[in-house]
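Support request from a user on the community tier.

User writes: "When I paste my C-alpha cells into the form, the page sometimes reloads and wipes my input. The last time it worked, I copied everything first. Here is what I submitted, just in case something in the input itself triggers the reload:"
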C-alpha cells in the first residue's frame, strides 16, 4: 500500500526515535468513544479509539461517523511541542457488514457463509464491507472471527464459518484480502481457541493438547497471516486454565516468533484487568505477554498510569514498549493511514455506495447460497409463485431478527424499524408471489410468548404455508446455552458490577426454547396444509419435532438484511446449494447425537436460474 517494506521500517524507526514514553504509551491505549474526547486524544497521544457494539455517534448515519472520525483525526494530527502528528486508527466490529450503522448492507453471519462454501464470494463480501466501513470514515474492522466452533451451545457459534479448520482457513485468507484490499485494516480474532471452550461457554477454558490447539484453532491464522492480516485480537478465553491475555508463549513465541506475525496484537474488551488483583501487575503481565495495544474502554487513564509505573519500575522493559509501538506505527504506515488525509476528504467517505443496490445484491447472493435444505417431502419445494401461500411465524416480517447480534446494537434489534433498506422474508415473498397471504403476525416485534395472534388459525384453503421460526438476536455469552452463572465483571459490554449472566437458555431444543414455533407448524399441518419451516438461528438447534411436523425444512442461519434471498430460493428461481458447516444435533442435543453430518444439504433439482459458471460455489 504505502511503499516498500524497507522504507516503512525506516519511517517507523525515525518516528519512534522522536517519541517520548508518554507518547508511546498513548499509542498503545484504545479507549471507547463515549469515554474519550478529541481533545483527550491529543493530550494523551491516544493511538486508537473504538466503538463497542451499538456505540454510535449522532443519528448513526455515515455522515455522523465521518464527522466523529474527522474530529478524532484532526486532534491526533495537530503537531506541537508536546504532541506528534500520528493519525488515529478507529476500530469497529464490522463482522457482517458495517452493521452498527443505520442503512448498512448486512451480510449473513459467518455460519451462513460457511454453508455457502464459496471463498470467492467471501472475498467480495470483504471488499463491500470495507467500502461501507470506509464510507463511515473508519479504517479498522475487528474481523474476521476465525473461531472454529466445536460446541454449538456457544453463543458466538454464528461468528464461526465452520467446525472444520480447513474451511475457516480457506476463508480466512480471502476475507482478509477483501477487507484490506483498499487500505483497510483487518483483525483476526480471537487468538486463540475461542471456539473450543469446554461446554461452549463463552470466555471459558479450552482444554486441549497443544497438538489439537495447533491443528484446529491455530491453523486458520496461517492463511490470514499469509494474506497479510495486519492485526490480531486476543481471546478472553483460556487455554488449559491459563488466560490467553497473559499467555506469553502463545502471543510472543508462537504468533510473533514462530509464525512471524509483524502486525500488532490488541487485547479484547477489558481483557487485561481480570489478569491480577493488582492493576499494575495485570498491565505488566499483558504487555509482557506480547499485547501491543490495550482495549481499555473506560479506565484508560488508569491504564496509562499503570503502564508508565510499570516501565519506570522496571516491570516492563522499554524494548517491549518500543516493539509494541513500532508494530502499531508499522500498521499505520502499511495501510497508508499517514497518506490518507482527513476523513471528510477521503474518497468514499459518506459515499453513495453505502447500502447501495449493488452491495445489497452481493448480500442477497450470499443469502441464497447460505440456505441449507434439510427436508423436502413430496417435493413441496419449490413453491408455486401463483399458489395461495400462507406466510407466518414470529420471524416472518422482522429484518432485525434475520440480522441477529452485532447489528445496530451489540445484542441486535427486533423488528424492521432500525434495519433500513433490505427485505424481510415476507417482503421478499410478497414481491414474487402475489397470491401469498401474511398470517396474523403483529409487526414481528413479539417476544415469543404464546405465538402471534391468530398464527396458524387463518381461515381458508392454502396450497402451502411458510413458517419462519427460530431464535431472537443475541451476542456473546448472552447467547450461550447453559445454566445461568455469575457475570465476570468487566469483560463484557454489560453494566459493570456483580450479577448473573442470563444465557439464551439451558437447552438446544427449540420446542422448549420457543414452543410457539412447534404450535404454529402443527396448527397448520394438522389442517392438512404442507408447512415449509424456515429456521432463523445462529446455530443448529434440536428440531426433531419441528422437522417431523413440516414437509419442508430450511436452515437459513442469520441471513442479514436481504431476506428476499430466501424467497428467491423457496420459489425456485435458484436451487439450494448450501451444505451444513457443522454437524446438526438430534435427540436431546447434549448426548452428542448427530442428526445430519457436516456437509449435508439437499437440492430441489429444479431451478429457473443457475449461478454463472466460475461463481465459486463448490
Ligand atoms: C468482543 C470482541 C469485540 C469487542 C469490541 C468484545 O466484547 O469479544 O469480539 O471486537 O468487544 O466491541
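"...and here is what came back when it finally went through:"
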Amino acid at each position: 500500500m504505502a511503499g516498500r517494506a524497507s522504507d516503512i521500517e525506516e519511517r517507523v524507526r525515525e518516528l519512534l526515535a522522536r517519541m517520548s514514553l508518554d507518547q508511546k504509551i498513548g499509542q498503545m491505549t484504545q479507549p471507547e468513544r463515549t469515554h474519550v474526547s478529541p481533545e483527550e486524544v491529543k493530550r494523551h497521544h491516544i493511538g486508537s479509539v473504538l466503538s463497542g457494539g451499538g456505540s454510535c455517534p449522532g443519528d448513526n448515519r455515515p455522515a455522523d461517523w465521518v464527522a466523529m472520525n474527522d474530529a478524532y483525526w484532526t486532534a491526533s494530527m495537530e503537531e506541537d511541542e508536546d504532541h506528534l502528528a500520528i493519525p488515529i486508527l478507529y476500530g469497529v466490529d464490522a463482522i457482517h457488514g458495517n452493521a452498527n450503522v443505520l442503512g448498512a448492507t448486512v451480510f449473513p453471519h459467518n455460519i451462513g457463509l460457511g454453508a455457502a462454501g464459496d471463498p470467492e464470494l467471501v472475498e467480495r463480501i470483504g471488499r463491500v464491507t470495507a467500502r461501507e466501513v470506509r464510507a463511515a470514515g473508519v479504517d479498522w474492522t475487528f474481523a474476521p472471527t476465525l473461531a472454529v466452533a466445536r460446541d454449538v451451545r456457544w453463543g458466538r457459534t454464528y461468528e464461526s464459518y465452520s467446525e472444520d479448520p480447513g474451511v475457516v482457513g480457506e476463508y480466512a485468507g480471502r476475507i482478509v484480502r477483501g477487507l484490506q484490499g483498499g487500505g483497510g485494516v483487518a483483525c483476526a480474532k480471537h487468538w486463540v481457541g475461542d471456539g473450543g471452550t469446554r461446554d461452549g461457554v463463552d470466555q471459558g477454558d479450552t482444554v486441549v493438547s497443544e497438538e489439537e490447539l495447533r491443528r484446529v484453532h491455530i491453523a486458520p491464522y496461517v492463511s490470514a497471516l499469509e494474506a497479510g492480516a495486519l492485526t490480531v485480537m486476543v481471546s478472553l478465553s483460556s487455554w488449559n486454565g491459563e488466560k490467553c491475555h497473559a499467555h506469553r508463549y502463545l502471543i510472543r513465541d508462537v504468533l510473533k516468533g514462530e509464525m512471524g506475525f509483524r502486525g500488532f496484537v490488541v487485547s479484547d474488551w477489558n481483557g487485561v484487568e481480570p489478569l491480577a488483583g493488582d492493576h499494575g501487575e495485570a498491565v505488566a503481565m499483558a504487555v509482557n505477554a506480547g499485547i501491543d495495544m490495550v482495549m481499555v474502554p473506560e479506565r484508560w487513564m488508569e491504564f496509562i498510569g499503570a503502564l508508565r509505573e510499570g516501565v519506570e519500575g522496571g516491570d516492563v522493559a522499554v524494548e517491549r514498549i518500543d516493539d509494541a509501538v513500532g508494530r502499531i506505527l508499522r500498521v499505520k504506515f502499511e495501510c497508508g493511514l499517514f497518506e490518507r488525509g482527513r476523513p471528510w476528504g477521503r474518497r468514499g467517505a459518506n459515499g453513495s455506495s453505502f447500502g447501495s443496490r449493488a452491495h445489497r445484491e452481493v448480500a442477497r447472493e450470499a443469502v441464497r447460497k447460505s440456505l441449507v435444505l434439510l427436508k423436502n417431502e413430496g417435493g413441496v419445494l419449490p413453491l408455486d409463485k401463483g399458489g395461495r401461500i400462507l406466510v407466518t411465524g414470529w420471524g416472518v416480517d422482522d429484518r432485525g431478527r434475520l440480522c441477529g447480534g452485532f447489528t445496530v446494537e451489540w445484542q441486535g434489534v427486533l423488528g424492521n424499524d432500525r434495519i433500513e433498506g433490505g427485505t424481510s422474508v415476507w417482503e421478499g415473498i410478497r414481491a414474487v408471489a402475489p397470491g401469498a397471504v401474511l398470517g396474523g403476525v403483529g409487526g414481528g416485534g413479539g417476544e415469543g410468548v404464546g405465538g402471534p395472534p391468530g398464527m396458524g388459525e387463518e381461515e381458508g384453503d392454502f396450497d402451502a404455508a411458510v413458517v419462519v421460526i427460530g431464535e431472537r438476536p443475541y451476542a456473546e455469552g448472552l447467547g450461550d446455552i447453559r445454566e445461568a452463572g455469575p457475570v465476570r465483571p468487566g469483560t463484557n459490554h454489560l453494566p459493570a458490577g456483580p450479577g448473573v449472566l442470563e444465557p439464551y437458555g439451558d437447552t438446544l431444543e427449540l420446542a422448549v426454547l420457543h414452543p410457539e414455533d412447534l404450535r404454529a407448524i402443527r396448527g397448520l399441518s394438522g389442517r392438512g396444509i404442507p408447512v415449509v419451516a424456515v429456521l432463523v438461528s445462529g446455530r443448529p438447534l434440536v428440531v426433531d419435532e419441528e422437522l417431523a411436523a413440516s414437509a419442508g425444512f430450511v436452515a437459513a442461519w442469520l441471513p442479514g438484511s436481504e431476506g428476499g434471498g430466501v424467497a428467491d430460493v423457496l420459489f425456485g428461481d435458484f436451487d439450494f446449494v448450501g451444505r451444513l458447516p457443522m454437524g446438526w444435533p438430534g435427540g436431546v442435543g447434549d448426548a452428542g447425537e448427530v442428526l445430519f453430518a457436516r456437509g449435508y444439504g439437499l437440492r430441489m433439482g429444479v431451478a429457473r436460474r443457475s449461478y454463472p459458471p466460475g461463481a465459486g460455489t463448490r
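Agent notes: The reload is a front-end session timeout and is unrelated to the input. Confidence is low (pLDDT under 50) at residues 442-454. The two ends are 32 Å apart (CA to CA). Escalated to web team.
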